[in-house]
Design goal:
InterPro entries: PA_dom_sf (IPR046450), PA_domain (IPR003137), PRADC1-like_PA (IPR037323). The chain is α/β, with parallel strands linked by helices. The protein contains three helices and seven strands, in the order βββαβαββαβ. Strands 1-2-6-5-4-3-7 form a seven-stranded mixed β-barrel.
């Protein structure tokens, strides 16, 4: 199991129906760390979702955070694609949409490449619910705050996704 300091939290500010605090885990041995707290930044779903090559919406990822789906290529390859498109970080959601409790450990591939931007792993259910909400509202991105210091939030105010057990 993961210890508390190995989690990173972010909050969706809009759309309102998914205004929850989500839990993610940082990549184990590649990528950068969050040196800045972003009060409001776009979380842009990559197109295509797996982000293993050129993105059709890469212009929207510039200076924002990308939401990517697991599969098709290595975690590091996805992170590098987002970095090359000017993204500030990448959140890689599991492609198992029913995964609401099992965190994957993202590790370096055997290519000896590096990435400088933070890479986070998100449960499949959480990624699915964020993408579904954006589609239902016809929105190109969510607005998030990242990272969120949950130790400063009273437990009764923690807006957690109702489909996830904490």
């Amino acid at each position: 199991g993961l210890r508390i300091h190995e989690y990173l939290y972010f909050q969706v500010l809009s759309p309102g129906d998914i205004r929850y605090i989500f839990t993610a885990t940082p990549a184990k041995d590649f990528g950068g760390v969050f040196n800045t707290r972003y009060e409001q930044i776009h979380l842009v779903p990559a197109d295509p979702p797996e982000a293993c090559g050129e993105l059709s919406n890469g212009v929207f990822i510039q200076d924002q955070i990308a939401l990517v789906e697991r599969g098709g290529c290595s975690f590091l390859s996805k992170t590098r694609v987002i970095q090359e498109h000017g993204g500030r970080a990448v959140i890689i959601a599991d492609n198992a949409y029913d995964n609401d409790s099992f965190y994957i450990e993202m590790i370096q591939d055997s290519s000896r490449r590096t990435a400088d931007i933070p890479a986070l792993f998100l449960l499949g259910r959480d990624g699915y619910m964020i993408r579904r909400s954006l589609e239902q509202h016809g929105l190109p991105w969510a607005v998030i705050s990242i990272p969120v210091n949950v130790t400063s939030i009273p437990t009764y105010e923690m807006m957690q996704p109702p489909w996830t057990f904490w």
